[in-house]
Every structure is written in structure tokens, then in C-alpha cells.
Amino acid sequence: MHDHPDAQTCAEELRAALAAHGITLPSLGVDLPTFAARYPDRPLIALGNCNLLTARALVAALRKGAA
User: Fold this and answer.
1) Residue ranges for the chain with pLDDT beneath 50
2) SS3 content of the chain, % helix, strand, coil (to 5)
């Protein structure tokens, strides 16, 4: 398995940015199967599932940021 600290750092930064808006995605993290892929230098960040309340909070935060 390849080590990719940038992906982990990015996931942590995203978690912190979401938390600043009161949003928590418990399953947010680096997508480990990505490292077994043909191009492990492009890891994915897994956002995971969220409930309707969290999805609405994400929409509100994104709309506020776009305004």
C-alpha cells in the first residue's frame, strides 16, 4: 500500500472546515481501496453517507459560501 500524507491532510482539513459550519461526516476519510488502484497517486477522499439534516446543512453552507 502506498502512503499518501497529502490525502490524509486534505481529509483532516475538510473535516475541520465542515466542523466550522457545525457539520460532521463521521465516515469522512481517505478511500483506502484507492491505494490498490492502478493510479495510487490520485487518492480519493470518501465523504460517506449522511442523513437529510446533514445534507441540508451542507447545502446551506455551500450556498452561503457562494454568495
Assistant:
1) 1
2) 50, 5, 40
In this structure, what DSSP letter does residue 24 have? -
Give the residue carrying C-alpha cell 500524507. Answer: 5
Put simply, whether the predicted model's pTM sits higher than 0.90 gets the answer: no
Distance, in Å, from the CA atom of 65 to the CA atom of 8, rounded to the nearest integer, reads 24
Locus of grid cell 447545502: 59
Please name which of 9, 15, 16 lies closest in space to residue 43, comparing C-alpha atoms: 9
Query: For residue 66, what is its C-alpha cell?
Result: 457562494
- Give the DSSP H or E segment for 26: none
